[in-house]
Amino acid sequence: MLDDMDLERERGITIKSHAIQMEYTYEGEKYTLNLIDTPGHVDFSYEVSRSIAACEGALLVVDATQGVQAQTISNLYMAIDHDLEIIPVINKCDMVNAMPEEVEDEIIDLLGCKREEIIRASGRTGQGVDEILKAVVERIPHPEGDENAPLQALIFDSVFNSFRGIIAYFKIVNGSIKSGDEVAFINTGKEYTADEIGVLKMEMCPRKELHCGDVGYIVSGIKTATEVKVGDTITHVARPCDKAISGFEEVKPMVFAGLYPIETEDFENLRASLEKLQLNDASLTFQPESSVALGFGFRCGFLGLLHMEIVQERLDREFNMDVITTVPNVSYLVYDKQGGVKEVHNPAGMPEPTLIDHIEEPYIKASIITTSNFIGPIMTLCLGKRGELLKQEYISGNRVELHYSLPLGEIVIDFYDKLKSISKGYASFDYHQDGFRPSKLVKLDILLNGEPVDALSTLTHIDNAVDFGRRMCEKLKELLPRQQFDIAIQAAIGAKIIARETVKQLRKDVTAKCYGGDVSRKRKLLEKQKKGKKRMKQIGNVEVPQKAFLAVLKLD
């Protein structure tokens, strides 16, 4: 019910956390429950961290057929750090291949709870739902707060509505708010009138007043996207609170890629679309940049590849923006010979190789949970990505957790897809950053007729460079349309060419009308054609289709 975005329904995943309020009567008393449904995928963990900051407790829902997954563990630790009360629930207990006993053992190992605290449930048959609601009322503490203190409300989400402006969702920590009140946003320093406040049911329900502990929305006719920041605090203008609520850490993007409009004049539309999308997805970061091949666009930071894919899809569906995306990469630290350090996000920003002392690349600590019969292929995959095994431990039965140290740049492109395919979908993957380490990286350029195409250049490890360059040239040869002149596709490291392919020119048989006679007549026509081709090559330019940019991501 809550996953109302088309994308979520098609893919069967939660992308956006969703807040909702419900009434529940227990032992004759009426309770108000404010619930947030959060995504589980590692790429949307920022949604989870924001939701956790606004909650008192959490339901840990584990699939009885799958068991505990890697991202479940990382989200659980986040909840434990915030001192949330955790209620463990095993879902899908009515399935034929459910293994509730084994999953209970895993949860007990993780949480150290008692077996009778774990609730078995099924969304399909409704088994255990009453017990869950009772547990929520009995075990989870109600929000603490002072009704008479100055208003202090935490913004945990916002959406853009083309008729009403920006709608912010908040949780009241202290005080109360009435519709028509003058309110101020502490971080941005802007003041507004609360035109409408209310609570979130399946749709928005207006209310005259909201009290301490309530979760609701505020409409105040805000037009500019930059004026609402998730994690900001709302207070009254007349009686402000003394400090903002601390809670959210800044988001750290892991993967960077350039987004460029296909038509140059759409640049401003793309900016507006990204700002509106950022309201709804605070983990997206972007800044303007320009490229020789693609013109003006934005350099965007994403939390992972799935996140990047979803952003592209949403730009297309919700804002009708067609964009070209460059090869995703990560940020590197480049040390020059004078001892200075520079953060480089894309290969075009690399200094000359003669000035570089060494380059450091970001590493991650990855935990992969899988069944023991897939250990071999997964280890081979990680070794191929320059990973090193830190430790390996059996969780329960035949489930294993592998801890790897991997360079982030290696897992950015296709690691997750490969992991899923070799483990038949039975491996779950989670990671967090683990600092920078020195590495032998080189910049690989792709030249078309001697001109570098900056959107196709990548930073890669020296061991993989030659192989990668060769494969890239072969792929581009298939994808570039033939012209009236030869196109030379070359891969180069600095001035050294390491691979070459040629897209042959289209030719017309100009000698067809000469039959018989002297050979010099044919020669004359061929020479004339040769001169024309040469002149064409000087002024002709090679258009790189969007398919070519995407093909680089899927080289294997």
What topology emerges from the helices and strands here?
Elements: H1 6-11, E1 18-26, E2 29-37, H2 45-53, E3 57-63, H3 70-81, E4 85-91, H4 100-111, E5 119-120, H5 129-139, E6 152-161, E7 165-174, E8 177-178, E9 182-185, E10 191-193, E11 196-200, E12 204-207, E13 209-210, E14 215-222, E15 233-236, E16 255-261, H6 267-280, E17 285-291, E18 295-302, H7 305-319, E19 323-325, E20 332-336, E21 341-344, E22 356-371, H8 375-384, E23 388-396, E24 399-407, H9 408-411, H10 415-422, E25 428-439, E26 441-448, E27 451-452, E28 458-461, H11 462-479, E29 487-493, E30 496-503, H12 519-539, H13 546-553
Parallel strand pairs: 3-4, 4-5
Antiparallel strand pairs: 1-2, 6-7, 6-15, 7-14, 8-13, 9-10, 9-15, 11-12, 11-14, 16-18, 16-19, 17-18, 20-21, 20-22, 22-24, 22-25, 23-24, 26-27, 26-28, 26-29, 29-30
Summed up, the domain count is 5
Helix content: 25-40%
- The CATH class label of the largest domain is Alpha Beta
Tell me the major beta sheet.
Answer: 8 strands, antiparallel
Shape: globular
Q: Note poorly predicted spans.
A: none
Please, how many helices? 13
Report the span from N to C terminus. 38 Å
Strand order of the largest sheet: 10-9-15-6-7-14-11-12
CATH superfamily of the largest domain: P-loop containing nucleotide triphosphate hydrolases
Instruction: Tell me how many strands there are.
Output: 30
Summing up helix and strand content along with how strands pair, one would put the structural category as alpha+beta
Q: Which CATH architecture of the largest domain is right?
A: 3-Layer(aba) Sandwich
Q: What's the Cα radius of gyration?
A: 29 Å
